[in-house]
């Protein structure tokens, strides 16, 4: 994920073996025109979710440290550049991931046929919801480094110096899509392979942006598709990233994720990927004929707005003038579009849940059981949710909103 770097003088002051605090000299804020441009970009970025961001205030309130994250057990190592307030919110010892890495070989890293560069490929059949990998980051850095005079690459190099030679070697083996005229190799590797992760930030004026960059030894190699078969799941408590299958993945098939919002048109997606990662997307979705692409773009645009004008479940239950299947039909339409476009990453589970709820509110036992089972199959590794869903399938009348639509309409008519 590319970032903007406002410049500050920073000299490391060694405090302990794991943390070095950076001295920040007072300096003039950046020019107003530069601030306005960065403010507009960050406020408009949905991922960052910072509609009131102010660059001048952000720079004036930052104090950073270089920190080695400490883990309970294992040999993982992470070097992080963090706002001091963010670092203070981390526990002294990060616990193990709640879900351990899968047993046995689930993926291999190799070059795909007709492709340049490495990717992740399934080493065995992986079911929907199957865990492909769990990893800790090698490096972590803010989305925006608000220190002046030192180039961004200096901070990344300082982080590498805090890691073992073996880990640095794994980092240097990652791809670099950036030309030498734009940045050096280390910064190029960061910009090519960084995955957005979210950290807890202090509640204060001009807080640090929660979104940070994480570099992972294997998961960062996962290539892009506009119809991805896997997704990332970040757990800030265990400081770990999971790679989970969205659809069944056959052995030998490439594991893919979406680098950008997949609801844009093909032309927009290709333009963004070219600008950010210097490649023209040729995934199965983008390789479709022009006529199919036109319909695909329309479907993705519809999915992008499906939740904005959707009537709430409660309002549907209380409005006897609406068709009994009005709400269900909207979600059925979304499920159909998602499946045709390979976009299970777009709230697919929520749509399945909504359909099951709708049929439950209508006391339709057969359809309720069918869609509740589909919702359960989409999250097989969530054992707690699976047990609850299975209990409702066995006895639908225990479902909390069973018969609401019918009961409320009868009540209103009386």
From TrEMBL:
InterPro entries: SET_dom (IPR001214), SET_dom_sf (IPR046341), SET_domain_protein (IPR053185). Residues 1-21 have a biased composition (Polar residues). CDD domains: SET_SMYD. Pfam families: SET (PF00856). Residues 105-260 form the SET domain. SMART domains: SET. Residues 1-24 are annotated as: Disordered. This is SET domain-containing protein.
């Amino acid at each position: 994920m590319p970032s903007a770097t406002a410049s500050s003088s920073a000299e490391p002051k060694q405090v302990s073996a794991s943390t070095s605090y950076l001295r920040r000299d007072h300096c003039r804020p950046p020019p107003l025109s530069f601030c306005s441009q960065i403010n507009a970009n960050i406020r408009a970025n949905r991922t960052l979710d910072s509609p009131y961001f102010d660059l001048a205030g952000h720079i004036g309130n930052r104090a950073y440290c270089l920190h080695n994250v400490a883990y309970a057990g294992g040999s993982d190592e992470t070097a992080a550049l963090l706002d001091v307030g963010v670092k203070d919110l981390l526990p002294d010892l990060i616990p193990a991931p709640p879900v351990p890495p899968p047993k046995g070989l689930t993926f291999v890293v190799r070059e795909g046929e007709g492709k340049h560069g490495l990717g992740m490929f399934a080493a065995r059949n992986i079911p929907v919801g199957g865990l492909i990998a769990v990893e800790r980051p090698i490096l972590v850095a803010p989305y925006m480094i608000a220190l002046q005079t030192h180039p961004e690459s200096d901070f990344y190099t300082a982080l590498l110096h805090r890691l073992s030679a073996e880990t640095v070697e794994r980092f240097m083996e990652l791809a670099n899509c950036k030309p030498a005229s734009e940045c050096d190799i280390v910064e190029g590797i960061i910009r090519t392979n960084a995955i957005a992760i979210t950290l807890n930030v202090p509640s204060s004026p001009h807080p640090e942006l929660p979104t940070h960059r994480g570099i992972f030894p294997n998961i960062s190699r996962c290539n892009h598709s506009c119809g991805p078969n896997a997704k990332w799941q970040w757990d800030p408590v265990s400081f770990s990233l999971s790679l989970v299958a969205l659809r069944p993945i056959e052995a030998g098939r490439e594991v893919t994720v979406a680098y950008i919002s997949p609801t844009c048109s093909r032309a927009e997606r290709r333009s963004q990927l070219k600008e950010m990662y210097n490649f023209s997307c040729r995934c199965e979705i983008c390789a479709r004929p022009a006529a199919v692409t036109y319909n695909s773009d329309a479907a993705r645009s519809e999915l992008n707005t499906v939740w904005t004008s959707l009537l709430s479940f409660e309002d549907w239950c209380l409005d006897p003038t609406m068709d009994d299947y009005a709400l269900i039909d909207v979600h059925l339409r979304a499920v159909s579009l998602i499946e045709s476009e390979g976009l299970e990453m777009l709230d697919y589970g929520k749509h399945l849940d909504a359909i099951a709820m709708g049929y439950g509110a209508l006391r339709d036992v057969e359809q309720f059981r069918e869609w509740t089972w589909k919702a359960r199959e989409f999250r097989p590794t969530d054992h707690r949710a699976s047990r609850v869903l299975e209990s409702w399938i066995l006895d639908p009348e225990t479902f909390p909103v069973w018969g609401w639509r019918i009961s409320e309409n009868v009540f209103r008519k009386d």
